[in-house]
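User: Here's a structure from my thesis project, written as structure tokens. My advisor, Dr. K., wants to see whether a designed sequence matches the one we expressed. Can you design one independently, without my sequence as a hint?
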């Protein structure tokens, strides 16, 4: 949604999201590859799918920096770089 609040139980929030802020690698992975299956965000279970938005690694870095520094989120100036996105693979 416009202010990153999501729809509880269907679309997880980006605003004040523990999943985003505690495991940014997983957030980048979701934006890079899409997402399917169970995740828990702020104590609520989500079991849905997110389509791969088809962004380039530079765009993924931009989007991640945006969502990590808006709606009450702050990554305290630690910026995600294109190289960090490049290093994240679908399967560990
Ligand atoms: C059950 C989990 C999820 C569902 C169902 C879901 C669903 C979606 C959908 C449908 C879109 C496309 C919206 C559109 O094209 O207008 C989207 C975009 C997006 N999602 Fe998710 N999502 C999920 C999890 C996540 C997570 C965990 C993150 C990161 C922490 C995330 C970050 C984003 C971002 C940044 C976009 C916008 C990409 C862009 O258009 O540039 N999503 N999501």
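Assistant: Designed independently from the structure alone:
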């Amino acid at each position: 949604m416009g202010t990153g609040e999501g729809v509880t139980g269907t679309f997880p929030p980006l605003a004040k999201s523990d999943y985003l802020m505690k495991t940014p690698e997983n957030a980048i992975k979701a934006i890079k590859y899409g997402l399917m299956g169970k995740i828990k965000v702020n104590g609520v279970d989500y079991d849905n799918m997110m389509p791969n938005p088809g962004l380039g690694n530079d765009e993924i870095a931009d989007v991640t920096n945006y969502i990590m520094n808006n709606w009450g989120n702050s990554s305290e100036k630690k910026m995600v770089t294109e190289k960090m996105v490049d290093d994240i693979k679908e399967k560990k």
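When you compare it with your expressed construct, this may help: The mean pLDDT is 96.
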